[in-house]
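Sequence and fold:
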Amino acid sequence: MPLQVIDGPTIAEGEALSDGVDCSAGEIVRITVPQEFTPANLTLQASSDGNLYNDLYGANGEEITIVARPNSTIIIHENWARAIAWLKLRSGTRAHPIDQKTETKFAIAVETAA
């Protein structure tokens, strides 16, 4: 299956929540974490239309959390990756966000239909 790489989302310097990116072309399969990322776990917000975002939780009631490291690539195999139309990344958790020391631009790869 072909991949489409989305340039972004970006977390602004001094912020913990990114702008939103349109991932509706396919299923999220990879997140590239830039070198300048201030270390933290990533949590997510999702939207159906890019306007209203909600924190993403699993059926068990736990916040979806991804372990992230600067200058790394994360392979995504989870079921929630198929359900995301628009996505925001948060460094840290809803209760404990971690502000980024510098602008931090990720890349999201989505697997598209052939």
Summary: Residues 28 and 110 are 4 Å apart (CA to CA). The chain has a mean pLDDT of 95. The chain has one domain: 3-112. The first strand starts at residue 3 and ends at 11.
